[in-house]
Amino acid sequence: MKSLRFDIITIFPNLFASYLEETIIARAIRKKLLRVNLVDLRRFAKAHDAHRSVDGRPYGGGPGMILLLEPIFKALRSLKLVSASGIRTGKRTRVVMLTPDGKQFNQREAERLAKYDRLVLLCGRYEGFDARTLKLVDEKLSIGPYVLAGGELPAMVVLEAVARHIPGVVGHPDALKEETFSKGMDYVEYPQYTRPEKFVPAGLRLRGSDLRSKRGAAWRVPKILLSGDHKKIAEWRKRHWASR
Ligand code: SAM
């Protein structure tokens, strides 16, 4: 049985608590398909520092603070992912720095990362990382072209998108084959409907003719999906896979 371990290095481990206790992620953890180890970066601050600081001012001046290299080095050492001389040691492991200037994360990247046994997600804060931190990571990932205050939300995005590709995490295996991006990054899933067959908003007064009109019809489920003819339904769905 394939299982994947995540180590998430963050100064806000508590942000993950309710997220990891709910949804398909909690179920995957219970089923031992997923293991999530939260690593509080402040544990690796200097022992004599009462504030357990993990940030410092940028050399050369400028706004904000930068995450110190040493606590990250020590955190990775504690996970046995780097040797005393700074050499990366994990096999079947990927150490990922979350940063807005990283490679754009998408469904293909999620599938790729799901093939590893262990993923380490490094969450930045403040103005980001000391540039030498790059020596300790395998790759940089961005969840999109915008800047968030920290790497914790990106870590949850990567965790959930990757976890869905571990067999057993998504209840119905066919769900992964028949969804947006499953047939290529340009493809979006056909429209889906559930009950009721006809929906009339309470505030909308419709006469019979309105219900038959184009506007009224838009609130009805396409007839073919109610036909029970699986061949025709499959053909309809095939036609409605849309290219972006
Ligand atoms: N000064 C940095 C820059 O200009 O690129 C931005 C730092 S940002 C305020 C703080 C942290 O949030 C980053 O180190 C990173 O870990 C995380 N972060 C923000 N936006 C992100 C994104 N789009 N994808 C991944 N991580 C992001």
Précis, in short:
The chain is of the alpha/beta class. Helices cover 27% and strands 18% of the residues.
How is the topology of this model organized?
Layout: E1 4-10, H1 17-21, H2 23-30, E2 34-40, E3 55-56, E4 66-67, H3 69-78, E5 93-104, H4 107-113, E6 118-122, E7 139-142, H5 152-163, H6 174-177, E8 187-188, H7 208-212, H8 214-217, H9 230-240, E9 242-243
Parallel strand pairs: 1-2, 1-6, 5-6, 5-7
Antiparallel strand pairs: 3-4, 8-9
Helix pairs in contact: 4-5
Bound molecules: S-adenosylmethionine.
Residues 98-101, 123-125, 127-129, 142-144, 146-151, 154 line the site of S-adenosylmethionine (SAM).
SSE order, as H and E? EHHEEEHEHEEHHEHHHE
Q: Record the strand order, biggest sheet.
A: 2-1-6-5-7
Please state the overall shape, judged from the principal axes of the Cα atoms. elongated
- Enter the CATH topology name of the largest domain: Alpha/beta knot
Instruction: Summarize the main sheet.
Output: 5 strands, parallel
Tell me what the structure shows.
- This protein has 244 residues and is an alpha/beta fold.
- The protein folds into two domains: 4-163, 3-Layer(aba) Sandwich (Alpha/beta knot), CATH 3.40.1280; 198-239, no CATH class.
- It contains nine helices and nine strands.
- The chain has helices at 17-21, 23-30, 69-78, 107-113, 152-163, 174-177, 208-212, 214-217, 230-240; strands spanning 4-10, 34-40, 55-56, 66-67, 93-104, 118-122, 139-142, 187-188, 242-243.
- The strands form three sheets. A five-stranded parallel beta sheet has the order 2-1-6-5-7.
- α4 links the parallel β5 (93-104) and β6 (118-122).
- The chain is elongated, with a radius of gyration of 24 Å.
- 22% of the residues are buried.
- The model has no long low-confidence stretch (mean pLDDT 93).
- It binds S-adenosylmethionine.
- S-adenosylmethionine (SAM) binds next to β5.
